[in-house]
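chain below, 159 aa
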Amino acid sequence: MCAEQSGKKPPPDPPDPLDEAMFLSNGMKDIFDSHRPYGRSETGFLAGRSFHPAANIYETSDGLEITLDVPGVNREDVDLKVEGNRLTISGTRNFIKEQSDQDCVRIERRFGSFSRCFEVPSDVDREAISAKLENGVLTILVPRKRTSHEIKVESEGSE
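prediction:
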């Protein structure tokens, strides 16, 4: 008996190996960067390096809700695109030098461009996808198309 017939939810899809590899790669970079005397340089070969915003995906009764942590990213610097069953979220977080009269000794915040791709179900309503950016969190609502509707059956004599 399959999980759908028993009334139980099927198990979630396994993690995307590419996302896991990127997470491991970023973690290793952070380890090596933290052992440099002054960390990354805003003008060195690591300047403008992209960052990888963390994401959570929730399944709701209406579809999917995807949240990404993108502090310091402006709304106009974010793009969403759906091609086939792939939702691509890309954008840029620009470097802002906070004190113009001081030399920077260490930069730990990542900046530059980012891109995340997620597979979405084939029954999503592409025209109804919406996104909002609030307090550094990008929330994307990916609704499913309504494939069924209730039909009332009336008796012959009723109006």
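The domain at 17-143 is CATH 2.60.40.790 (Immunoglobulin-like). Residues 131 and 140 are 4 Å apart (CA to CA).
thats it, cya
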